[in-house]
Amino acid sequence: MGRDHKFQVVHSVTLFAEYLREGRLKLDKSVFAEERCTYQDPCNVSRNGGCGKDAREIIGYLCEDFVEMEPYGDYNFCCGGGGGAIPMAGPFRERRLRSGKVKAEQIRATGASICITPCHNCYDQIRDLNKEYELGIKVLSFKEMFEEALIIPEELKAQEEDEDEE
Amino acid sequence: MSLYELLRGPLLWLAFGVFIGGMVVRIILFFTLSTKKDKPIYRFFSWKWLWLSIFHWIVPLNQTAKKNPITTTVGFLFHICLLVTPLFLLAHGVLWYESWDISWWSLPESTADYMTLIIIGCGIFLALRRIFLPYVRVVTTAADYLLLGVTLAPFVTGYLAYHQYFDYNTVLLLHMFFGELMLVVIPFTKLSHFLMFFFSRAVTGMEFGRRRAPSW
Amino acid sequence: MRRGHFLVFMLILIIGSLLLAVNLDAQPEDIVLNDQSVFTSRSRPAVEFPHQLHFDDAGIECRECHHRFKDGENIVDESELYEGAEGVKCSSCHKNKTGFRFKPDLDPTKRTLRQAYHRMCIGCHRKLSRDNEKSGPVTCGVCHPKKKETKA
Amino acid sequence: MAEVTALDPKKFKEAVKDKSNARLKMWLEICAHCGLCADTCHFYLANDKDPEMIPAVKGRKVLEALRKKDKIDEEFLEDFYWTIYGECTMCRRCTMFCPFGIDIATITSTGRGLCVSQGKVPENLKKTIASYYEHGNQMEITQEEWIDTLQWMEEELQEELPGATIPIDKKGAKVLYTVNAREPKFYPMDISQVARVFYLAGEDWTMSSKGWDDTNLAMFAGDLKAAAYISQLVRDAAEELEVRRVAITE
After folding, report:
1. What is the rounded average pLDDT of the residues A112-117?
2. Nearest to C63 by CA among C74, C72, C54
3. What is the DSSP letter of D37?
4. Domains in chain D, start-ordered, CATH in brackets?
5. Nearest to B71 by CA among B136, B148, B138
6. What percent of chain A is predicted at pLDDT more than 70?
7. Residue A43: inside a domain, yes or no?
8. Contact at CB, C101 and B101, closer than 8 angstroms
9. Are strands A138-140 and A8-11 parallel, antiparallel or unpaired?
10. Domain limits at A40?
11. Architecture category of domain B3-209 in CATH
12. How far is B58 from chain A, CA to nearest CA, in Å?
C-alpha cells in the first residue's frame, strides 16, 4: 500500500461511505430497525487502515440501534482470526478459538443481535465464535446488509416483477 | 593521585567520553543500517507524525496513561527527577563551576533531597512490580534488576553523602564511582532508551500515521 | 531564600580566605563565613574557616588570598588589611546576586560571594593536593560538616 | 501442521542477518520489560492471563532467536514456532499501548521469516503460497473458474437488476475491485452483492481476470519474497487496466 503507484488504493468501506455521502446510494434504515448492531473493527481496516470513521458513517445510514464495543475503533481488540490465523487451520484452530474469547465477551456485553464486520477473517472468526461461545448473533458484512437495505429505483428493477404485479 | 582526583578527573572524562561517544556511535549505526534495511522509514517520513507521536508520550496523553494511572505517575516522577536532580543539583553546579567556570540554575537543596527520595521510592516500586506482577516477572531478567540497581546506586549514595551518614569520604567516592558507572553502561544497555525512545516513537508514529491511525 | 533566584538558595559558605589583618596579633583565629545579608537561607552549615592556620601553620602570604587586581597585578598592600578596613572582606567586591556564567572569561568580580569562596578555597586546595603538597579539603561535606551545626 | 524438517543452521544464520534491521535491533534492545503491553493482548486475556502470552515475551523469544544464529536447536525452534504463529495475530494493538511504540507485529513477522528459513510454516499457509504462485490467488482457483464465477454471479444479479453487469478487464475504468479469494470459493454471493452496489451507485468499475486476490498470506507467513510477488500481481493488473483506484476488501 501507498507505494508510488499511478493508482490510489482505497478500502471498499471508504468507497461505500463515499457513495452514501454523495447520495449515490440510498439505504432503507427501517430494514434493520429492530436489530441492535455492533461493529467489529478489523485490525487491518481500522487500526492499520484508518477506515474506522468511514465504517461508522455507513452505520449511520444503516442502523437505528448501534452500540459500540468496549473498547472500540483503533483500540478495539483483534478477533483472533487475523495474521493468517484462519487459513492456518489444523492445530492452530483451537488456539484461535480460545483467543477469540475476548472478542466473544465484548460482543456479548453489547447485547447486539448483529455484528457487522467488513473483513473476511473477522467474519469467519466471529461466526466460529458465535457457535463456540453461543452468542446467538448474526454476523453480517456491509455488502450483505446493503443487499437487503438498498433502495432500488423502480426503473432499474426487472420487468417481470412489474408483470407479476399487473 | 588521590582516588578522589582520579574519579574527579580522568575517570569522569572517560565516563562522559564513553557515554557521549557510545550514543553517537549508536545513532550513526542506526542511520547507516536503516538506510539500507528500513526503507519504509524514509519512504513515509513525516515530521508531523513524528512530533505527534513523541508529544503524546512525552506527556501522559495516551491510552496507557489512562489505563495505568499509578504506574504512569510513578514512571513520570521517576524519569523527571532522574533527569532534573543531577543536572540542577547545587553540589554538581559547584563542580561544573570549578572545572569550567560556568554555572546555571540550581535547585534548593531540600527540594533536591526530596526528589532523590522520590527516585529511590519509585525505583523500589518498579522493583516490587518486577517481583510481584507475574506478567512483569516473566520478562524480567537479571540484567533488569542490575540496571535498576546501577541507576539507583548514584542516588542512594548521593543521598547518604549529602546527609553524611557513614564515612563521608567513602560514601562520596562510591557516589562518584556509581555515577560514572551508570554513564558508561547507558550506551550498551536498555538504558539507551533515554535517547532511542525518540527514534522508536518517531518510527512507529510515522508507520501508524501513514495509515491515518494514532499511535497513542 | 530569595524567591525567583534559585542561586540564592545555595548552601552555605565555604571556607574563605579573606580577612583583615594589619597586624598578625590582631588576627581572628577562626572565622565563620556566614554573611547573613547574602546567605539568607542555609541548608548546609556555615563554614568555619581557620584563618590562623592558613598563615601561621601553612605560611600563606596575606596577598595570596586578599586581592584587588589591576592590569593583571594584585595591587593590595598589606597595610590595607586590618580588621574593619574597606575592601578587606570578599563581600566588599563580590556582591553579584545571580551566578549564571556561560562564558568563562566573564569579569571575575561578577562572581557571587559563594562562587568567590568556592573558587578561592577549592581551587587552592585542589592545586596543592595535585602538587602533592599538604592541602585542605576539597569535598562538600568536609567544610560543611553536617553534625557540627554552627550558630554564629 | 509443522513438518519435521532438518535444521539448517546456516540458512537460519543468513535469515537472521537478512532480517536484522535497524528498527528491530533498536526495539529489542530498548524494551524496558515494563509489562504494560500485557493486558492489551487478547491472547493474554483469553488464556487466563498466562504471563507467557504477553507481547513482550514474543519479543524476547525473537531476540533469543536472533542471538542464537547458527546455534539454533530443534527444541527452541519448536517452541518458537508455536509462539510466533499461534500466539500473535499481528494486530498491533500492543504497539498502541507501548510507551516506546515497539511494533510487535514487525517482530512477529521477523520471527515467522526465521521459521520460513527452516521450512517451518503451517502446512495450510504453505499451500496457499504455492497456490499464489500457480494461480495468483490463495484458494487454487483457476482463471477459468474465476471467470465462470463472475459470469454466474452476473446472471444471478441480472434476474433482479437487468442492467447490472460485472465488467471484466475493462480498460480505463475508475475502480478496480479486488476480493478475498474466500469470496469466489465460499461466498460467491458477495460478488453479486458488491456488483449491485456499484451498479446502483453508477460506478465505472471492473474486475481483473488476473490479479484479483487482495489477500497476502505470505506476508503473514513471514515469506516476504512471496509477499512482494503477490502484491505485484494486483499492481500489475491495476497498471495494465489503467484504473484510477484499486478497491480492496482486506
Report:
1. 95
2. C74
3. T
4. 9-121 (1.10.1060), 141-247 (no CATH)
5. B136
6. 92
7. yes
8. yes
9. unpaired
10. 35-153
11. Up-down Bundle (1.20)
12. 20
Is C13's pLDDT higher than 80? no
The grid coordinates of residue A115 equal 455484528
Euclidean distance between CA atoms D68 and A153, whole angstroms: 66
Angle at B214 between CA B208 and CA B216, to 5 degrees: 110
Band (pLDDT 50/70/90 cuts) for residue B216 is confident
Q: How confident is the model at residue C7 (pLDDT cuts 50, 70, 90)?
A: very low
Q: Which of B214, B42, B209 is nearest to D22 (CA)?
A: B42
Q: Please tell me which of the candidates D162, D196, D247 has its beta carbon nearest to residue A12.
A: D247
Chain-centre distance for alpha carbon C46:
12
**Chain B interface test: which of D16, D20, D21 (most B C-beta within 10 Å):** D21
Closest by alpha carbon to A49, among B212, B205, B45?
B212
Q: What is the pLDDT of residues D47-93, one digit of tens each?
A: 999 999 999 999 999 999 999 888 999 999 999 999 999 999 999 99
C35 pLDDT band (50/70/90 cuts)?
A: confident
All partners of chain A with 3 or more CB pairs under 8 angstroms: B, D
- The domains found in chain C, sorted by start residue, are 6-143 (3.90.10.10)
- Least confident residue range of B196-210, C56-70, D118-132: C56-70
Of D26, D52, D56, the CB nearest to B200: D26
Confidence band (pLDDT; 50, 70, 90) for D5?
low
Spatial distance between the Cα atoms of B171 and B158, rounded to a whole number of angstroms: 8
A146, D193: Cβ pair inside 8 Å?
yes
In this complex, which of C99, C130, C145 lies closest to B103 when CB atoms are compared? Answer: C99
What average pLDDT score do residues D183-204 get? Answer: 92
Average pLDDT along chain D: 91
Domain count, chain A: 1
Task: Give the containing element (helix H, strand E) for B109.
Answer: helix B109-132
- Residue B103 has its nearest CB partner, among C9, C101, C142, at C101
Question: Any idea how long chain C is?
Answer: 152
- Grid coordinates given for C147: 553534625
CA distances from D44 to A9, A104, A158, C112, D92 (A): 34, 15, 53, 60, 14
For chain B, the structural domain boundaries read 3-209
Does the residue A96 lie in any domain?
yes
Test A46 with B63 for CB contact under 8 angstroms: no
Query: What DSSP letter does each residue of C34-88 carry, written as one string?
Result: --TTT--S-SSPPEEEEHHIIIIIS---GGGTS--EETTEE---GGG-STT-TT-
pLDDT digits (tens, 9 = 90+) for B129-153: 999 999 999 999 999 999 999 999 9
Residue positions counted in chain D:
250
Do B and A touch (≥3 CB pairs < 8 Å)?
Answer: yes
DSSP H or E segment with residue D166: none
Contacts of C49 (CB under 8 A, 6+ apart): C15, C16, C17, C30, C31, C32, C33
D86: DSSP letter: H
